[in-house]
Amino acid sequence: MSEDIISWTNQGTAFIVYNQDLLEKNVLQNYFKHSNYSSFVRQLNLYNFKKVKSNEGFIFRNNFFRKGTKSMLQLIKKRNQEDSAIQFAVQGEHASRQKQEQNLFKECAIDIKQTNTNLKEDMKLLQETSSCLIDQMQNLNYVINDVIFKVIYNQNVDIELKFKQVGQMLQAINEELKSEKQSDSQTLNQSLVRKEDCYQDSKVGSPNPYVDYNSTALNPLDYECFLDSFF
């Protein structure tokens, strides 16, 4: 095989055809049952070789066709076989993914069920706690109402007692005032009696020529009787 007709690229990852005519005449007939370049290219396409045109010629590349790596040649498959393998791999991956999703759904369903159970238990506990709090509030209201009633009752009792004490004090003051009034009245009556006696005594005997009995002025004897009424 002449390197002027066909050879590896410098990187060894593809081969390049420099001269199509010489390839048909000198190379293809030695390796294939035909010497048609177009048929050769179709075969390369069938095995997933990619054709790229360059200044030097046409480059053909396949990921498993590398210089010095014959072990990778078995990985080169025809397009239909590769498509089937890819389809099988895709189906297997899809089945695996579907199974994973099913397992995930089952786990989610279990988690949801457990969460629902926990929520029911929490709700039941909350209801019990709420009922207990309501009972405590009612008991507290009873205690508060009882305390308020006792406070108001005691205040009313204290007020009534104070009113009673004030009434007793007022009654005592009133009785004392009545007693003083009676005493003053008796004293005044006694003074008037003494004055009247003095006046009558002043008229006994001969009339005093120096006294005007018809005058409204105070008689000296009357004055003495008047003063005596205060002692």
TrEMBL record:
One of its GO terms (molecular function) is sequence-specific DNA binding. The keyword Disulfide bond does not apply. InterPro entries: HSF_DNA-bd, WH-like_DNA-bd_sf, WH_DNA-bd_sf. GO terms for cellular component: nucleus. Keywords: DNA-binding, Nucleus, Stress response. The keyword Transit peptide does not apply. It is found in: Nucleus. Residues 28-52 form the HSF-type DNA-binding domain. It comes from the Eukaryota. Belongs to the HSF family. This is Heat shock factor, putative. It comes from Paramecium tetraurelia.
